[in-house]
From TrEMBL:
Protein encoded by which gene: LRO1
Keywords: Acyltransferase, Transferase
Annotated source species: Coemansia furcata
Protein name: Phospholipid:diacylglycerol acyltransferase
Taxon lineage: Eukaryota, Fungi, Fungi incertae sedis, Zoopagomycota, Kickxellomycotina
EC number annotated for this UniProt entry: 2.3.1.158
């Protein structure tokens, strides 16, 4: 009865409400008793409500009021007011009880919400890293994200006591990227912060400043290509880059046929197809970043700016790398423009130019110097190079070509011939037939085919860069056989480099073969008579074994390259339904030849059909270093005594979780453009300190060179 007397008007509705809310709960009666007896609920507000109710009823808190006690009228009025007040207080108490009971549910929702937010953060960062294939803070284009990550406190996102404090701090520190580069071999380097090193250090310690004009010449697939077409499917891409930037990825994924039409060259002319016009982007941003976050020349430009360079005395000579060098001049007047730019720089500043090249850019520059001298080219005469060019800095140059170019043209398997970022899309959204068609139309790619034949790359008896395996180690395959056929279905013999190049001429269609023979040769000249006879033949200007360095005794060639990264050197191949090389000519269709990707666990240097050797991850050591360490130090190839300096750098990257590009110690093919020591050498050269940069050998290239029988 006491409980009934305490129940105010509306109490039945309150009880009904509580019953509805607690229908699935086993402790509803306990909650009702707690509310009626005025016991403490665990909060100060609830306790205060019970005290107020007791004061109005004239009893101690927690003492029940007994019904039927006689009272005067005044007492009844007071009692009526007390009951009204009690009704209000009880309603407040009911609401507070609802809040208290809802707190566990609310806490659960908060925890789930925090986990959801944490999942979004981690997932977004992982996706961004995967897309950029790089540490995002390395791009000036997303500094705002860096600022956000620097202020991010993971412990504010995750529930308390869910993860150890030290683990949360480690995750926060990793995302803010404050410590990346701290354990680099050069402790002062921290490229993740964009600190313009090593230039700042060299300016402070060695007082470096700009001296010579600088022109940067990028490698294959580094320059962005813009659409200038105005017909059909081209219109949505007008003045947008179909190579480089996110537009390229969008086009491959959503408009592949149109993208392929733009990227292929005409089979007959080697130039633009009808109705298509693709041109190299201009300016420093043509090759500073491939896409946002993935730097190419970006770091070199930053460091040169510290020495005082700007767009008035530093330029990037981008070009359409799909074209043969002959067609670069024929269509775009590329070499005429480059020659004029160098001449204007000399007249305006009184200083010669340093050409800094990367990858295929070294061959473009070799061609340019011969073209500038030749009466069939720039007609500058024998002294033009000596008068205008201070130094040639080859970064990861490709003087003798790249074997993986052979697999690209033979079977449409590019295996990182393109940038790793583009590699994924091309490999997953284009078949070998499409890739082979595109690659074979790029006459510029043909300039990267290996040069020197068996004399450089070896024969079936062995190769100069063969590595002997120990008695306990797995067997090492010789590099002398460039293509090996060991499956039972193929009846083809193993192919040396000379054989493989002949095989390519049988695989290519007649138009591709005609353009290849029109623009290039890949042999070796061994006499001065051969050199003189072909001095003005543009086909030999890309092959350092078939032309001589220019008459420039005051010029220096610097060869800076990395080694120690696993590099494609030879291949295991198979052929579908083929008994003879005569069956391999392809006018259309999927290439009959393909890399045989069967596992050969007993062979130490073979993986999924690729025979690995030493190099920078893209270019084998023989191509990187032979001409620099040996060939250009011989009178036949360097009759005028051009100074040649070779500097090798061991590939020493950071762990991928610290810097996916490898950090300041990486010297693989692309990331050497951000290497601390390589950049320091380049800065000394452009600042007029090239005489202080001397040979540095850390590989066996000189031993390999002694095994090559070339005069």
């Amino acid at each position: 009865m006491a409980k009934e007397a305490d129940a105010p008007r509306g109490g039945s509705s309150s009880s009904a409400r509580r019953r509805r809310k607690n229908r699935n709960s086993n402790n509803s009666s306990q909650n009702n008793d707690t509310a009626t007896n005025g016991k403490a609920i665990g909060t100060k507000a609830s306790k205060g409500t019970v005290v107020a109710l007791a004061e109005h009823s004239g009893s101690e808190p927690g003492t029940p009021t007994v019904t039927g006690t006689p009272r005067s009228e005044s007492q009844g009025g007071v009692r009526s007011q007390a009951l009204d007040s009690a009704t209000l207080k009880t309603r407040l108490l009911d609401n507070e009880l609802d809040v208290v009971k809802a707190r566990p549910l609310l806490a659960g929702r908060v925890k789930r919400r925090r986990w959801f937010i944490a999942g979004l953060v981690f997932g977004g960062l992982a996706a961004l890293t995967g897309i950029l294939y790089a540490n995002p803070t390395k791009s000036v284009h997303i500094d705002r994200m860096h600022d956000m990550l620097g202020e991010l406190d993971i412990s504010s996102i995750l529930p308390d006591s869910l993860l150890p404090d030290d683990f949360i701090q480690d995750i926060t520190r990793l995302l803010s990227l404050d410590s990346i580069g701290a354990d680099s071999p050069t402790s002062t380097v921290n490229y993740s912060k964009g600190d313009f090193q090593p230039a700042l250090t060299l300016v402070a310690e060695e007082k470096l400043e700009k001296v010579h004009n600088v022109i940067l010449i990028p490698g294959i697939i580094s320059s962005g290509l813009e659409s200038w077409s105005t017909a059909n499917c081209s219109r949505p891409y007008f003045r947008q880059r179909l190579w480089g930037t996110s537009t390229m990825f969008k086009a491959i994924l959503l408009d592949k046929e149109c993208w392929v039409q733009h990227m292929m060259l005409d089979k007959k002319t080697g130039l633009d197809p009808p109705g298509i016009k693709l041109r190299a982007a201009k300016g420093l941003d043509a090759a500073d970043y491939f896409i946002t976050g993935y730097w190419i020349w970006g770091k070199a430009i930053e460091n040169l700016a510290v020495l005082g360079y700007d767009s008035n005395d530093m330029a990037l000579a981008a070009y359409d790398w799909r074209l043969s060098y002959h067609d670069l001049e024929r269509r775009d007047q590329y070499f005429s423009t480059l020659k004029s730019q160098i001449e204007v720089a000399l007249r305006s500043t009184g200083k010669k130019t340093v050409l800094v090249t990367h990858s295929m850019g070294s061959q473009v520059t070799q061609y340019f110097m011969k073209w500038a001298e030749s009466k069939n080219g720039g007609n500058g005469g024998d002294s033009w190079v000596n008068d205008h060019i201070e130094a040639l800095v080859n970064l990861a140059g490709t003087p003798l070509g790249v074997p993986k170019t052979l697999s690209s043209l033979l079977s449409g398997e590019q295996r990182e011939t393109v940038q790793p970022l583009a590699n994924y899309l091309l490999d997953h959204f284009m078949n070998r037939n499409e890739l082979a068609r595109v690659f074979r139309s790029w006459t510029g790619l043909m300039s990267l085919l290996p040069k020197g034949g068996n004399a450089v790359w070896g024969d079936l008896l062995g190769a100069p860069d063969d590595i002997s395996s120990s008695d306990t180690a797995p067997e090492m395959v010789s590099y002398g056989a460039q293509l090996r056929f060991d499956d039972e279905t193929s009846k083809l013999d193993n192919q040396t480099m000379d054989d493989a190049m002949r095989l390519l001429t049988r695989v290519l269609d007649k138009d591709a073969l005609r353009l290849l023979q029109r623009d290039y040769t890949y042999d070796v000249f061994r006499t001065q008579e051969e050199m003189d006879l072909h001095a003005d033949d543009h086909r030999v200007w890309t092959n350092p074994l078939q032309h001589q360095l220019p008459n420039a005794p005051n010029m220096t060639i610097f060869c800076l390259y990395g080694h120690g990264a696993t590099t494609e050197r030879a291949y295991y191949y198979t052929a579908d339904n083929t008994d003879s090389v005569d069956d391999l000519r392809e006018e259309a269709g999927t290439p009959a030849l393909r890399i045989d990707k069967r596992q050969r666990a007993h062979l130490e240097n073979v993986d999924i059909g690729i025979v690995h050797g030493e190099g920078d991850g893209t270019v084998p050591l023989l191509s990187l270093g032979y001409m620099c360490a040996s060939g250009w130090r011989k009178p036949l190839y360097n009759p005028h005594g051009v100074r040649v300096v070779t500097r090798e750098f061991v590939h020493n990257p950071l762990a991928a979780f610290k810097d996916i590009r490898g950090g300041a110690g990486a010297s693989d093919h692309i990331n050497i453009l951000g290497n601390y020591d390589v950049t320091a050498d380049m800065l000394r050269i452009v600042a007029g300190r090239g005489h202080l940069v001397e040979d540095q050998f850390t590989s066996d290239i000189r031993k390999y060179a002694e095994r090559i029988s070339i005069p």
